[in-house]
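User: Second chain of the day. Same drill as before.
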Amino acid sequence: MSPNSDSILSQELSRRTALKALFGAASAAVLFGLPTRAHAAEASKETTDKLNAAQAQLDEVQAQLDSIANEYAALANKNAQTLNDIENVQGKIDDTQAQIDEKKAELKKKRNDLSDRVAASYKSGGTNILSLLLASGSFEELVANAHYVEKINKSDRDAIEDIQTIQAELDAQKTELEAQKANLEKLKDQQTAQMQDMQAKQQEVQTVLNGLSDDVKELMAQRDSEILAAAQAEEAARKAAAAAAAAANKNNSYSGGSSSGGGSYAPGTPQQNAGSGKQQAVVNACYSTPSPGQNWCAAWVTNVFRNAGVGYFGGNACDMFNAWCYSSDRSALQVGMIVADSSHSGTGAPGLIYGHVGIYVGGGIVMSNEGAITSKSLDSFISFYGTGSGVRWGWLGGIALS
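Assistant: Same format as last time:
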């Protein structure tokens, strides 16, 4: 990972941390949701459209950068193999040169031996027929001595010829290896030049990406500010409605009115509904809560549970997975549980860092925000998002809805 990549990653983490703090600060002002109204506070359409367009452009440039990085990695691997080949060929050249040097030394020794023997023979009068005749006790011994001398000379000549042949073969082999090395050196230079060009291109794209990233972060901050302002406005309206309803109830009680049923509460007061009612509220909220944007799966889950009247639970998908997802037993999976992983490779850096989270709505279906709200079978969800940490499920906030 390049220094620029490290910088972008740290900026993204800082942005996520700041946003978590923003929503955390607003948590006291977030509604559990009135029975007649279940939607998330939203930013303006203009801001959302600008953010989506900037995010799409950022994703496109990021894809280009990823493509360049993959090409660079492939070329770097080829270059490493070329360097290994050069090293191997050089080793063969060195081995061949050692054999050539050995044969040269052997040839020199053979020639010296033959030269010494000829010189000794000359000094002693030679090994001609007359000297053999005088030195031989019989004709048969003369023939034997002559044959022996001829054999020695032929053996020396054959040995010298063999050494010269081997040396010539080794010289040819060395020449061929040196040609191979020269070609590999040329290939290495070409690959190095390509890698340098790709590094320059990568830097250009990285610069564009940094600028787009700043634009997206600015638009995200604007969107988050608008969402928070809308949530605060909703909270103020809710409080006003609750105060008016409380006053009306108080007036009714003074006039002798009474509520029917097995218990009453002031409108807008959060209730921990038991049984399938609360589960159904979560399912209904899944279908009515819009997407807050690409890469904001956990924010959507937070909005769903807030709109369903369960409560506010912040954090990213990884946080939710670590805190509340404890089981992978399908028999334990119930409607309204969150289904999450803490890291997967299918969606690039965001998935690797933050994971993904959705909500089980029954019938083997998991709904989640993937830029748009999608419905996947549990098997498909696990197959795609379970490639890293694996997928688990549990009750968000530890609140059992069943």
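DSSP finds nine helices and five strands in the chain.

User: Great, on to the next one.
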